[in-house]
Design goal:
single chain, mainly beta
Length: about 1700
């Protein structure tokens, strides 16, 4: 069941039909018009002087033409043709504006009850023009005939009427705990009588009727329009004349009737001059109500005109003419004039008979409308001025646009001459603004042209919009109204107020207001042109909104790739504000449904929902969180709850408290009347605004748009609307304009259906857009996956090898469009040694807003210590097209510390050229405790030679120095040194080592020349044995031989392959033995070629070319035809000459169709070669026993290693002629090529020389081929080959730029194809200049507190020392960051420091403001960040330190006094009070010095919204001064309250970190009475024994200058007079004197017990104060003639 409980919300819908006309059809755009106003029905004259002033003095009289409301008006000119003389004029009967033009606004035009009274204004606008074409409507002078032979007409049919304008009735309603109304002009709407209940009729008593009692018997007509005004179905409409019921018919609910009773008996008119008409509804429901729109009575009347000066009447048709003899018409002394409005004739009356006005009219067959006018000099109303008007012809294509701005000239100047409405048009025409064809239209022009000049008539916009839709060359897309408006009820009720025209600039449609209906087709709701409004009242407000739109759309058009700048656009805030828990639960349920839509669609939102709570503390926390959200940026706000035009049920009513410049949300409010700024508010011009106006018009804050209801709303229907709207925004019309989305929403809910259900319709009408309809709710064209530093968190904050693992938390965001395509996420870890491991590699569902990965990463204490880099890559394969691809990867660097010591200087592989050097090492954890350290030096990396030396040291973390004095280096000798911390307990010793070579008098550089140095190189196809000899690697190979007989197998199936390379295929002739020979070391095959006709090498058959390599004359097989004894013998010899150790393969290439030579024929060769000497016997002798089966055509294969008995041969004989043989042989070969690649050598600041040397083990050293490649390595690890050195052993490399390539790698190319023994590298070295090396040195200087109170400064200091022989060449950069408890990294600015020379130290000292870092934080300092200057090591440049800031959670205190006194609720205060507001905070560090910490509001009497006060002469801020020991800020507030009544002071305060002063804001009610008065003065206690004080109340704005209390005896003797100075401080309001009278006289003598009298004497500016008497004050009974009594009882 739908919940039809009134919330405070509304919705908007759209419509489609077309309008038949546009109200401007009467205009000739080639003419100039002159307009003037008519405010009441009367005779009007336009004098010649007025025409002359307008430049019309010479226009012929016959050319003038007059228009009213689109219809030509008949005029009379004193000269019929030619120019006017000075005394001539134009005369016409002028009529005030009526409601005829309102009828077209009604949903059902017939339901308009009162067409004679305008809903919008009584003033009609007339347009005078010049029409030389003629046929202009004129009154023509006619002859008043001779009545001699005629009988005067006895009567005429007179109509008297009452068109009620007592009440502006709201019309049809539906009751949902309240009456709810449609914006459409509906049944019963408009001017009516007061409501009539069944008890009491609407009575209209017509008088002065002058009934002609002898008239026709049934000649009376009665017309009544009425409507029900309550939801009652038991009702009849009853009408009575006098007491006679003439009509009774059912009229239920809010239905209407237009009753037209004709042919009623004349006898019903019981009186000649009076006729009471009674109208009511009959119902048993006492509270039933109806209203009456109009009552008119037509009856036969005598020609008696009741002494009127103007009289309108109709003359009955008469074929013989009419003789009118009129009495009781006030014509003075001048003959009146009769205007025949039907036939256009003008008659001058015959007044020859005193008291009678006579006219003789010609015959007529129709009734004629007449007006008789007094023609005395002052009877006609003069038109004093004409305003020239040239209508704009909107059919001109240059005036057509697709973005229409309707505004008012009052906004065209901001006070400094700038027209921001025009600038808005220019912006919308620009590329940045959408490249619209934007045009600006003046509402005053539209009013004149499309609404006949009727001010504030909605047809001005409505008809223009219809015209634009149907007449413009391209259909308009948007209509943006710039200018505030008022609904017609508010306008009509305040029409005469001077401020109305300043705050009602562009009309809206109906009541409640609906801008949507301005562009909807008649009877429907869908706006056919998407519409919005800016409720500005001055140009400055237009500028403020334009600036926001430009900024808002610039952000959308130029998206950035960071969360900080774009992430906020997908944040959504939902707020539910119910009155109770049940409502809150329902509204939150609604909001959760919307959240699911906006999260899981293209919007991909992050939604945070709040609901109202009765708990003050929670509510305050919610308010604080909402403030944070808005200031950080939110793209969309949805509110569902109770509201009014000025307040929400939730504390969101003051956008100025949210500093969200540049991050403007779109605000969707489902709450009653939140969008209703269409009211008369005289304070609007002085800054008072509704909620909607506050948000949209606030410069540099607030919202970009505000969608809300102008009337009541019903929760289920608001929910329907929101579901459709959210789906439009996030699905079907994602990325489209809000105007399109609203239009679609309305349509989807039936807005184009004229019969849409009433409760749907009112929401669709009344949810209106405050803002530009071309705005687009934040959206994106593509997704944009982003990973940023603050999204990646490592736990614990400082990681050591003592931890078994660390937790890696990765949050990924999509700051673009949400799509469902999966993406691949890869997380890699790079260790300090260059090793990379993949921690995560999976495809995940496309991220809508955010997703996360949590990994537990194990720690290997041996390999993982030092610098680690985690690299996260989103969309690894670039499978998804994104806005940006450069924010998909993040590398986060961190360190895994070990309780270890690392050698730093001399550098690894360094060339040392001095004796007695200092050895430097750094602890992995610079903040480790004091430890013992050990260093060892030896000539072997095994540290086991007799030379080994050991040294010790102790100290804290940081730099550790060793200074041995007993070492004499040997020239050319390599030394190894290692360092460790002396373990505690049973821990193992952890050694870290390095090596260097001593070269006397050498330059600096890097060297490898010892076995243990060479083993750190990289070897490819070569190795270094423990015997310290380089050898080529043995390679496992695979030799595959395939064969078979033709025709079963051909080229594709007969081949020889080594690994994956085909060495040979097929053959040259059939029926032969093919022999292959392979070198056992390299597996290189012997090659064959033709050496003489018919023969190849070794007596084989001549070779044929290989089609695959036609230019190569060689083949690798040796073919011996086995059907030829010569070749058989040659084959035997070939097998004999193959050296031992070689691999041999024997196969046959046969043709089963042609071969007839088998082993029997081969054996016959013994006849010539001797016994046992044939090819058959040879094959048998080498082990090919299966050859015995070759007595028929079969394929075969035999493979063996000659002379190697340990190698088992392979023999295969195919079982049939169609068999295929395919055998792979696993073999080994020795590589003849290999490379040796050095470790990274460097870094250096300059490169100089490359030197290298070695020896060869070959008998012929020329067979060794070597070359040295020099590879440059950039800082980012990218490598490039820079040079190859072939012969030189000492060559310059100074051409290498060390800035580009700070590191080098050497690569030796080693080849020996003859002996397979590589060249033996002895040494290689590169000479260059060392880079500097610095290290943090907390053991030299460090300071920092572990824990502080929030706000307390943290003094941080750290030393950094250059421990190398090289200087830093430029200013040293320092990076200092703090990662807060939210994993947000804050960079603290540290200026560059001095360039450190060798051995020098610098100190970084920095004061950290802890106010911004509550909780646990991690400080990180890095010297020389990003390798700004090349350095040998970097791990010792960083330091991590956690610190804790005790969060300030103590609320500050507010103390408020009025004139030095703490008041109670509803106390009286001065009209000009001195209000002192103090905000005190216990925090000793965070000074209260920001004016934003305090906000002051005052709600004035009869105002719903409080006024905000800002700091100026009235309110002065005094900041706290902590140096005094008191952290108290003050406000001296000196307002003036000129209006008597109850005020409310509202103060909110917070401390620097945002703690509020109390769970709710401070509020106190107080009363102001400007008149200076004093109440009865009472003493307390009374009776008293020792002393008594005095209690009294003073009103006004200042205390009396003189106040005295006289104490008298009962005989009247003054015994004591107490002066003002004695009484102590007196203030306006309730006073209890600090002075206490002790019962002594003026001399200090004690008075006797008894009764004493007293009175108070006052004086203010020479006058005595009147008595003040509060409500309920009955103290007068204690006073007699101003004297009170007190009792002294000691």
């Amino acid at each position: 069941m739908l919940m039809r409980k009134l919330l405070f919300c509304c919705l908007v819908l759209f419509a489609t039909p077309a309008m038949a006309q546009f109200n401007n059809e009467w205009i000739d755009f080639n003419k100039t018009y002159y307009k003037f106003k008519v405010g009441r029905d009367s005779l009007y004259r336009i004098p010649a002087a007025t025409l002359q002033s307008a430049g019309l003095g010479s226009v012929p009289a016959e050319h003038f033409q007059l228009w009213r409301n689109g219809e030509e008006v008949r005029i009379y000119t004193t000269v019929s043709t030619g120019a006017f003389g000075p005394n001539d004029y134009i005369e016409f009967w002028g009529r005030m504006n009526d409601g005829e033009k309102d009828t077209e606004l009604f949903k059902d035009p017939d339901s308009h009850l009162n067409k004679k009274v305008s809903l919008h204004t009584d003033t009609a606008v007339y347009f005078l023009t010049v029409n030389p074409a003629g046929n202009n409507l004129r009154y023509v002078d006619a002859v008043n005939g001779n009545p001699a032979s005629m009988t005067p007409d006895a009567y005429f049919m007179r109509t008297v009427e009452r068109n009620y304008r007592t009440r502006m009735n709201r019309g049809r309603a539906t009751v949902v705990s309240e009456y709810v109304y449609s914006s459409a002009y509906d049944i019963g709407e408009g001017w009516t009588s007061n409501e009539a209940s069944p008890c009491c009729d609407v009575v209209m008593e017509f008088s002065g009727l002058n009934v002609f009692t002898q008239g026709p018997a049934n000649s009376v007509s009665l017309r009544v329009t009425a409507a029900g005004n309550a939801p009652n179905i038991d009702r009849d409409l009853r009408i009575r004349i006098f007491g006679n019921e003439v009509y009774r018919q059912p009229m239920t609910l809010f239905n209407y009737q237009k009753v037209n009773l004709t042919n009623l008996p004349l006898s019903l008119l019981l009186s000649v001059n009076q006729a009471p008409i009674y109208v009511n509804g009959t119902s048993a429901v006492a509270t039933d109500r109806i209203v009456v729109g109009s009552i008119s009575l037509t009856y036969p009347a005598r020609y008696v005109f009741n002494n009127q000066k103007f009289f309108e009447f109709d003359v009955l048709p008469n074929p013989n003419g009419n003789f009118l003899s009129i009495v009781s018409f006030n014509y003075g002394a001048v003959a009146p004039v009769l205007y025949d409005r039907t036939e256009g004739k003008r008659y001058v009356a015959d007044i020859s008979t005193p008291g009678q006005v006579k006219f003789v009219l010609p015959p007529s067959t129709v009734s004629r409308s007449m007006v008789l006018v007094n023609y005395e000099a002052n009877s006609a109303m003069p038109v004093a001025a004409l305003q020239q008007k040239n209508f704009t012809d909107f059919s001109n294509p240059s005036l057509h646009g697709n973005y229409l701005i309707v505004s008012h000239p009052a906004l065209y100047d901001d006070g400094n001459g700038t027209n921001y409405v025009e600038q808005y048009r220019q912006y919308r025409s620009s590329i940045a603004g959408g490249s619209y064809n934007a045009k600006m239209y003046n509402i005053e022009e539209l009013t004149d042209q499309f609404a006949y000049g009727i001010k504030q008539h909605p047809a001005a916009v409505r008809s223009f919009a219809a015209y634009a839709r149907q007449q413009f060359g391209s259909a308009p897309q948007y209509l943006f109204i710039i200018g505030r408006g008022m609904n017609y009820v508010e306008h009509r009720n305040n029409e005469q107020r001077p401020l109305t025209k300043q705050i009602n600039l562009v009309p809206t449609f109906g009541w409640p207001a609906s801008d949507n209906l301005l562009t909807a087709a008649h009877g429907t709701v869908t706006p056919l042109i998407r519409i919005g409004r800016l409720a500005a009242v001055n140009g400055t407000e237009v500028k403020g909104y334009l600036d926001k739109v430009v900024e808002y759309e610039q952000v959308q058009q130029q998206p950035t790739n960071s969360i900080a700048s774009s992430g906020w656009m997908k944040n959504v805030l939902h707020v539910a504000g119910g009155k109770d828990s049940a409502e809150n639960a329902l509204f939150v349920q609604y909001m959760n449904g919307y959240a699911n839509i906006i999260r899981d669609t293209s919007f991909g939102a992050s939604v945070e929902t709040f609901s109202k709570t009765s708990t003050g503390v929670i509510q305050q926390e919610n308010n604080q969180r909402i403030r944070e959200i808005l200031q950080n940026g939110v793209g969309f706000i949805g509110y569902f709850g109770h509201s009014s035009a000025n307040t929400f049920e939730f504390n969101l009513s003051e956008p100025e408290q949210y500093n969200n410049a540049g991050k403007y949300p779109f605000f969707n409010v489902s709450g009653c009347s939140a969008g209703d700024f269409y009211v008369y508010d005289p304070l609007r011009l002085s800054g008072n605004k509704t909620i909607s106006e506050k948000y949209v018009l606030a410069p540099n804050r607030g919202s970009i748009g505000f969608l809300a209801d102008t009337h009541f709303g019903i929760p289920p229907f608001l929910n329907f609307y929101n579901i459709a709207l959210y789906n439009a925004i996030t699905r079907s019309l994602y990325g489209k304009t809000i105007g399109e989305q609203i239009q679609h929403t309305v349509n989807s809910l039936g807005g184009a259906n004229p019969n849409v259900e009433f409760l749907y319709r009112i929401h669709l009408e009344e949810i209106t857009l405050h803002g530009d309809p071309a705005i687009r709710v934040n959206h994106f064209d593509k997704p944009d996956y982003v990973i940023e530093d603050q999204l990646v968190k490592l736990s614990p904050g400082i990681i050591t090898v003592a931890d078994n693992s660390f937790e890696l938390s990765v949050k990924m965001q999509n700051i673009g469009k949400a799509v469902n395509d999966t993406i691949r996420v890869v997380i890699q870890r790079l260790l300090d040694d260059g090793t990379t491991t993949v921690l995560y590699d999976r495809r995940i569902r496309g991220i809508h807003y955010a997703d996360s990965i949590l990994l537990d990463v194990p720690i290997n204490p041996v390999t993982d210590k030092g610098r680690n880099r985690i690299t996260i890559t989103l969309d690894q394969d670039d499978a998804v097209d994104e806005l940006f691809e450069n924010n998909n990867t993040l590398t986060k660097e961190f360190y895994i510390f070990e309780d270890e010591l690392r050698p730093v200087f001399p550098y690894q592989y360094a060339i040392v050229n001095q004796q007695n050097i200092t050895y430097y090492a750094s602890t992995a954890n610079p903040l480790s405790d004091v430890r013992q350290y050990t260093m060892e030096l030896d000539t072997t990396a095994l540290f086991n030679s007799p030379y080994k030396k050991t040294y010790n040291n102790s100290g804290g973390g940081g730099i550790v120095e060793f200074n041995p004095t007993d070492i004499n280096f040997v020239d050319g000798k390599v030394y190894y040194w290692r360092v460790s911390m002396v373990p505690t307990g049973t821990q193992d010793v952890i050694w870290n080592s390095a090596s260097f070579v001593y070269l006397q008098n050498s330059t600096e550089g890097y060297n490898q020349s010892h076995y243990f140095q060479h083993v750190n190189s990289q070897f490819d196809d070569i190795n270094l044995g423990t015997d310290r000899v380089f050898r080529f690697d043995r390679l496992q190979r695979s030799l595959t031989i395939r064969t078979g007989l033709f025709p079963y197998f051909n080229y594709d199936r007969i081949n020889v392959n080594l690994d994956f390379n085909q060495l040979e295929l097929y053959g040259c002739i059939y029926n032969n033995i093919q022999i292959y020979v392979f070198d056992s070391t390299t597996l290189t095959p012997w090659r064959n070629q033709t050496v003489s006709p018919g023969f190849g090498r070794f007596g084989s058959n001549a070779v044929c070319p290989n089609s695959a390599t036609p230019n190569d004359p060689t083949r690798i097989f040796f073919e011996f035809p086995y059907n030829n004894p010569v070749y058989r013998k040659n084959a035997m010899d070939f097998l004999d000459l193959i050296p031992d150790g070689y691999y041999v393969a024997i196969t046959n290439l046969g043709n089963r169709n042609t071969n007839n030579s088998f082993i029997q024929q081969w054996m016959d060769d013994t006849l010539t070669l001797g016994s046992g000497n044939s090819l058959y016997h040879k094959l048998k002798s080498i082990g090919f026993t299966e050859i015995d089966s070759f007595y028929r055509n079969l394929p075969f294969l035999y493979f063996y290693q000659k002379g190697i008995a340990s190698y088992a041969p392979t023999q295969v004989m195919g079982p049939r002629d169609s068999s295929h043989i395919d055998v792979s042989f696993p073999l080994f070969s020795t590589s003849t090529n290999g490379t040796i690649t050095s470790p990274l050598l460097g870094p250096a600041t300059a490169w100089q020389q490359l030197q290298w040397g070695g020896t060869s083990y070959d008998p012929d050293i020329t067979k060794d081929t070597t070359a040295i490649e020099v590879w440059g390595v950039r800082s980012d690890g990218l490598t490039e080959r820079l040079s190859t050195v072939y012969q030189s052993r000492d060559t310059s490399i100074s051409f290498i730029d060390a800035q580009t390539y700070p590191y080098l790698r050497l690569r030796m190319l080693n080849s020996d194809k003859t002996y397979g023994t590589p060249y033996q590298l002895d040494y290689w070295r590169v000479r260059g200049d060392f880079v500097p090396e610095g290290a943090v040195a907390p053991n030299l200087y460090f300071q920092m507190s572990d824990t502080v109170e929030q706000g307390a400064p943290i003094e941080f200091g750290l030393a950094f020392k250059n421990i190398s022989s090289a200087n830093f060449d430029s200013l040293l950069k320092v990076k200092l960051t703090i990662t807060d408890r939210n994993n947000q990294v804050h960079v603290l600015p540290v200026p560059q420091r001095k360039a450190l020379v060798s051995g020098d130290t610098l100190k970084v000292i920095y004061t950290i403001e802890s106010a911004n870092f509550p909780g646990l934080n991690t400080l990180f300092i890095e010297f020389n960040p990003d390798d700004h200057q090349p350095e040998q090591s970097h791990y010792n440049n960083v330091l991590y330190k956690t610190f804790f800031v005790k969060e300030d959670r103590v609320n500050p205190l507010l103390d408020i006094t009025f004139d030095g006194v703490h008041i109670l609720n509803r106390d009286i205060v001065a009209a000009k009070p001195g209000i002192l507001i103090k905000l005190k905070d216990e925090n000793r560090y965070m000074e209260l010095k920001d004016t934003a910490l305090l906000k002051v509001f005052v709600r004035f009497p009869d105002e719903s919204s409080p006024r905000r006060y800002y700091f100026n002469d009235t309110m002065r801020f005094i900041p706290a001064n902590i140096s005094t020991g008191d952290n108290t800020a003050s406000i001296e507030f000196n307002p003036y309250f000129p209006v008597d009544g109850e005020y409310e002071l509202i103060v909110s305060g917070r401390d620097v970190v945002g703690n509020e002063a109390g769970t709710i804001e401070y509020r106190v009610l107080f009363n102001v009475i400007n008149k200076p008065m004093i109440s009865n003065l009472l003493n307390y206690p009374n009776p008293f024994t020792t002393s008594t004080a005095f209690v009294f109340t003073v009103t006004g704005s200042e205390v009396p200058q003189n106040i005295r209390i006289q104490i008298l005896t009962v005989t009247g003797k003054i015994v004591r007079e107490i002066t003002k100075e004695e009484l102590g401080p007196i203030h306006i309001g309730r006073n209890i004197t600090s002075f206490k009278w002790d019962g002594t006289d003026m001399y200090g003598q004690r008075l006797a017990n008894g009764v004493y009298l007293y009175r108070v004497l006052t004086n203010l500016n020479g006058r005595r104060l009147d008595k003040y008497r509060a409500a309920g004050d009955n103290t007068d009974k204690y006073f007699n003639k101003g004297y009170g009594k007190m009792y002294l009882m000691r």
